[in-house]
Design goal:
With about 110 residues, this protein is an alpha+beta fold. It has four helices and three strands. The two termini are about 20 Å apart. About 20% of the residues are buried.
Length: about 110
């Protein structure tokens, strides 16, 4: 049983002041993660069971929509981008390079 009802998920997604896109995790009563949602434009678009796939999709969404990382966590995103996906921070040809990296990562992950 989830501690967040589905209507609460939509309320959390539309909360003011959130930098878009973002990840939103729902938990079970025992504190375990039930699902991780990728939220874009205040709408949960994808649901993941594994955090690695959710993080790859989040980083990918910044590249696909040509968005800048939020200042408060840019260092973390650049680290994940360069060392986890093995993609250079160099912005030239970022879309095709990252698209191929994401396809490889996500093809090995189970999506809901």
């Amino acid at each position: 049983m989830s501690t967040q009802a589905p209507q609460d998920l939509n309320k959390l997604c539309s909360k003011k002041g959130r930098t878009q896109p973002f990840l939103l995790a729902t938990t079970l009563a025992n504190g375990c993660t039930e699902a991780i949602n990728l939220v874009i434009d205040k709408v949960p678009l994808m649901t993941f069971k594994e955090s690695s796939a959710a993080i790859a999709a989040l980083i990918g969404s910044y590249f696909i929509f040509d968005l800048e990382y939020p200042n408060e966590c840019a260092g973390t995103f650049f680290f994940l981008q360069e060392f986890v996906t093995q993609m250079s921070v160099n912005k030239s040809a970022k879309y095709s390079t990252y698209q191929n990296a994401c396809i490889g990562i996500l093809s090995n992950k189970e999506l809901n």
